[in-house]
Design brief:
Blueprint lengths: L18 E2 H7 L11 E6 L4 E8 L18 H20 L4 E12 L7 E12 L3 E10 L2 E13 L3
Antiparallel strand pairs: 1-2, 2-3, 3-5, 4-7, 5-6, 6-7
Length: about 160
């Protein structure tokens, strides 16, 4: 049975842009193909909930080889997208100046297939923030249906 959603998708406007792609990647270090977020579309500081949009398109680099003729968005890229949203929320909200590195993943489940063209709504709830690590519950939805969930652990690295 799927867990409860971290936020009500009906209350999140995917067309709202709180931080655009360029603003996100002024804060996060990923470049080129690994820029996975298109926009931060919601942030609730009190609830520690962030939401982002990831447009899955037919012209992306992985489409040609990840199931030719029937492209499926790779699960590892869903996980990377959720990790980037977690890192952005930690850096932006908490003002952390270093890099947030991927430290681990727990309770990861893929509950649906994502095929282009579709839009992922990524949700992140920061549940723990310590000087050396963060822990975030994450989910991804397509058209209101849960397709992915994972608990992401981020390691706080001093500026490099």
């Amino acid at each position: 049975m799927p867990p409860p959603l971290l936020a009500d998708p009906a209350e999140i406007d995917l067309d709202r842009v709180v931080y655009c792609h360029d603003e996100i990647y002024r804060i996060l270090p990923q470049q080129f193909e690994f820029r996975q977020l298109d926009a931060i579309c919601h942030y609730d500081a009190q609830a520690r909930i962030a939401a982002a949009r990831r447009d899955v398109k037919l012209d992306e680099w992985w489409v040609r080889g990840h199931i030719p003729g029937h492209p499926i968005f790779p699960g590892i890229l869903m996980l990377e997208s959720a990790a980037q949203l977690s890192a952005f929320a930690c850096k932006y909200v908490d003002g952390f100046r270093g890099m947030v590195a991927f430290g681990g993943v727990e309770k990861c489940k893929f509950r649906g297939v994502v095929t282009p063209p579709q839009t992922l709504l990524l949700l992140c709830h920061e549940i723990e923030n310590r000087p050396r690590r963060i822990i975030c519950e994450t989910q991804a939805l397509v058209d209101g249906t849960l397709v992915f969930e994972a608990t992401i652990i981020g390691l706080m690295m001093p500026s490099m």
